[in-house]
Automatic annotation (TrEMBL):
Residues 260-574 form the Glycoside hydrolase family 31 TIM barrel domain. The keyword Aminoacyl-tRNA synthetase does not apply. GO terms for molecular function: alpha-D-xyloside xylohydrolase. This is Alpha-xylosidase. Keywords: Glycosidase, Hydrolase. Transmembrane segments: none annotated. Its EC number is 3.2.1.177.
Length: 773
């Protein structure tokens, strides 16, 4: 939201009361409180009819400092509020001189100037990373009596801003106006399903605005050297989070707002759906499932979209008996084929649903100020919305979900949650403006917790569209409604990379696009991208997404990349474990892994899948692709070609290939199974050691099906000698050197050929030495 008219003027009707002078800084039990004036004090008379801002500093975690700017402190906080880690602050140090008061938290120093020129500066050691200057913190009013709180933080020369949720606009946010307000706007506009008030910069720090309502950002737009954010009201709280790397910033941010849960291994397999408005019944479903099996296409999850329920009655949680007369038997038969089952739901209750009357009678639906149930015809005729601030409504909704799980459902696609009105009254009195974005958090939490309760911790997974800060705790999320073209494929990737830089560990998208039907070449290129994503789903709107509906080659491409993904599961599930433990996205923007490479700062058409694999999807019918390899030696996973990085490359690929490179100094674990994602990853695992440099060491961890580390292997090179140690499972594995020449000799294990070593089962601690020719 813009308040100024260029650099010199203020917009008509706007009054800005900006912080100009420090009146006092006081130590408190939480940290520091500063009182700042918005007009210079030249004498006692100047203290009258004036505006003060109270600025509170505290630190819940090392390297994380919260700043709360308050004008009037008598406003009732009606909630909701983000659920944040509440630290003790024991790690905080306070230092004071005549000129400054300093709060130190981990590697972050906050310097408050005591002089007549107000400023707050944030330092990493001796490096100033950002700051709030003269008049940046401000209380603002307009001609209608509306009030706003604003902050402006400095953006340095060459500094780029990322994140703010799943955004489909330009990957680098500099120059953009971003209003965080969840909307169902598809993937081709500035609107977003997942708005997250957190950004991270190429300087290695992040800023989280602790406000669930509309936060309006001007990122190097209203003022080109400022990241400005504002909210309506009388207070504004934000946290500065120091890295020093982007990965460390995200680790601290997710320690504050919640780590992603680890999805069960089966969710990483291929999902196939009925599509949205297509006609289907059990025979249709069986034809899809049998068609996949006949063509040797590994399938792991089958999803029933909206019309598993009767039209006009969404959501009633009842199978449409006209097309699914025996749902319990059908789900049992699908389970016997090795499939998991997902069904579509949302939190809206159509008036023709039997649940509408229950919800109306018991006060489970959102109400208007008049006391009437809020209803709309947008989506389902006469629908109401479940009020998840009412514990009884949560239990009511959860009860129907439990019945479905008992019937054989393994997961829920939690669609919608964005079109949440503000002219309503919540059961617990929550502020409806703050609830607009936060509603999705309560919705997905209820569903996720039912799955945990019924299936066990570690077995829960939703397929969610909407989210806000903290939503990463309830994976998986998908990118929403995209078109079936290369442009939407690219914008989807931008959105996923932005979401990954906002603390979300797992992300998916509709392979081939949701709207319309893709040409076969788009579908096949999207298959490679989709099956080298965290999660992989074939889904559309008006047509089926079975591969043979496109052409015979699409079947072969599906098989090739699905089996490739299954074989990579020992590596991918460790990447998933890192997302769960550290908050790092499975699909990582290049700048996240290569923060020192300036070329990587703006790349948004390629990504790192974990820390070892580089993926560059192809967005052209002719198979041409231009991509960048950072410095170092890279080996193509599919053909073994080794190239030196540090430059751009242009190539042409058929549908069974794309730039897919292993980073030097990687130890890549590949599984013994290629037909399913949930198997014993340590049994018969193959380790490939890629371009290990002299004097370097590298490790790989193989986890069990529950995500616990089971086998850890380390390789260290000194000259032509590689020493390998393994701790853990006691299961047999093989170890191969890549791009290192041939093996001259092996001590402590059995050599299989010129590049491969066999390690027999039995010992949980193994050590052997490889001498290269």
């Amino acid at each position: 939201m813009k308040f100024t008219d260029g650099l010199w003027l203020v917009r008509d009707g706007i009054t800005i009361n900006g912080a100009v002078q420090n009146y006092a800084v006081e130590k408190t039990a939480e940290g520091l409180t500063a009182i700042t004036q918005t007009t210079p004090i030249t004498g006692r008379a100047a203290t009258l009819n004036s505006t003060l801002l109270t600025v509170k500093f505290h630190s819940p975690l090392p390297g994380v400092v919260g700043i709360k700017i308050i004008h009037n402190d008598g406003v009732i906080d009606r909630g909701p509020s983000f659920e944040l880690t509440q630290g003790t602050g024991d790690h905080v140090q306070i230092e004071e001189t005549e000129a400054q008061t300093v709060l130190i938290s981990g590697g972050l120093r906050v310097v408050i100037n005591k002089g007549t020129h107000w400023s707050v500066d944030f330092y990493r050691g001796d490096e100033r990373i950002t700051g709030s200057g003269y008049k940046s913190m401000a209380y603002i009013t307009d001609q209608d009596g509306n009030t706003f709180m604003r902050e402006e933080l400095d953006i340095g020369i060459g500094e780029f801003v990322y994140g703010l949720g799943e955004r489909f606009t330009a990957f680098v946010k500099n120059g953009q106006v971003v209003d965080l307000w969840n909307k169902d706007g598809g993937t081709s506009s500035e609107q977003a399903y997942k708005n997250v008030p957190f950004y991270v910069t190429s300087k290695g720090y992040g800023v989280f605005v602790n406000q669930p309502e509309l936060v309006s950002y001007e990122i190097a737009s209203e003022k080109v050297k400022k990241a400005q954010f504002s909210v309506a009201g009388e207070s504004l709280e934000y946290f500065v989070i120091e890295g020093p790397t982007i990965k460390e910033v995200i680790t601290k941010y997710t320690s504050l707002t919640g780590k992603p849960a680890l999805p069960p291994a089966w969710t990483f397999g291929l999902w196939l759906t009925t599509s949205f408005t297509t006609d289907y019944d059990e025979a249709t479903v069986n034809s899809f499932v049998e068609g996949m099996a006949e063509r040797d296409l590994p399938l792991h999850v089958f999803h029933f979209d909206c019309f598993w329920m009767r039209e006009y009655q969404w959501t009633d949680f009842q199978w449409d008996s006209r097309v699914f007369p025996d749902p319990v038997g059908m789900l049992k038969r699908l389970h016997e084929k090795g499939l998991k089952i997902c069904v579509w739901i949302n939190s809206y209750i159509g008036q023709r649903s039997p649940l509408f009357e229950e919800g109306k009678k018991n006060g489970y639906l959102l109400k208007k100020p008049s006391g009437d149930v809020y209803q709309t015809d947008l989506w389902q005729a006469g629908m109401g919305l479940v009020d998840f601030t009412n514990p009884a409504a949560c239990e009511w909704y959860a009860g129907y979900l439990r019945d479905l799980v008992d019937m054989g459902v393994d997961s829920f696609k939690t669609d919608f949650g964005e079109r949440i009105p503000t002219d309503v009254v919540y059961f617990d009195g929550s502020d409806p403006h703050k609830m607009h974005n936060y509603y999705t958090q309560l919705y997905n939490k209820v569903v996720f917790e039912v799955l945990e309760e019924k299936l066990g911790k570690g077995e829960a997974a939703v397929f969610a569209r909407s989210a806000t800060a903290g939503g990463q705790q309830f994976p998986v999320h998908w990118g929403g409604d995209c078109y079936a073209d290369y442009e939407s494929m690219a914008e989807s990737l931008r959105g996923g990379l932005s979401l990954g830089l906002s603390g979300f560990g797992f992300w998916s998208h509709d392979i081939g696009g949701f709207e319309n039907t893709a040409p076969a070449h788009v579908f096949k290129r999207w298959l490679a991208f989709g099956l080298l994503s965290s999660h992989s789903r074939l889904h559309g709107s008006t047509s089926y997404r079975v591969p043979w509906a496109y052409d015979d080659e699409a079947v072969d491409v599906t098989r090739f990349f699905t089996k490739l993904k299954c074989s990579l599961m020992p590596y991918l599930y460790d990447v998933a474990g890192q997302a769960h433990e550290q908050g790092w996205a499975s699909m990582r923007a290049m700048v996240m892994e290569f923060p020192e490479d300036p070329t990587c700062e703006v790349l948004d058409r390629q990504y790192m899948l974990g820390d070892s694999l580089l993926v560059a999807p192809i967005f052209q019918e002719n198979g041409e692709v231009k991509y960048y390899l950072p410095a170092g030696r890279w080996t193509h996973l599919l053909n073994g070609e080794t190239v030196e990085g540090g430059s751009w490359r242009k190539e042409k690929h058929d549908f069974f290939s794309l730039p897919l490179f292993v980073r030097q100094n990687s130890l890549l674990a590949v599984g013994s199974e290629d037909s399913r994602p949930d198997y014993d990853f340590a049994e018969g695992v193959k380790f490939g050691l890629y371009s290990l440099e002299d004097g370097k060491a590298t490790t790989a961890t193989v986890r069990d099906i529950n995500g616990a580390p089971e086998l850890k292997v380390e390789a260290a090179r000194s000259g032509n000698t590689i020493t390998v140690t393994a701790e853990g499972s006691g299961k047999a594995f093989t170890f191969a050197v890549k791009d290192l020449g041939a093996i001259a000799s092996v001590e402590g294990a059995e050599q299989a050929d010129e590049t491969t070593v066999k390690v027999n089962a039995g010992a949980t601690s193994v050590s052997f030495t490889i001498t290269l020719k």
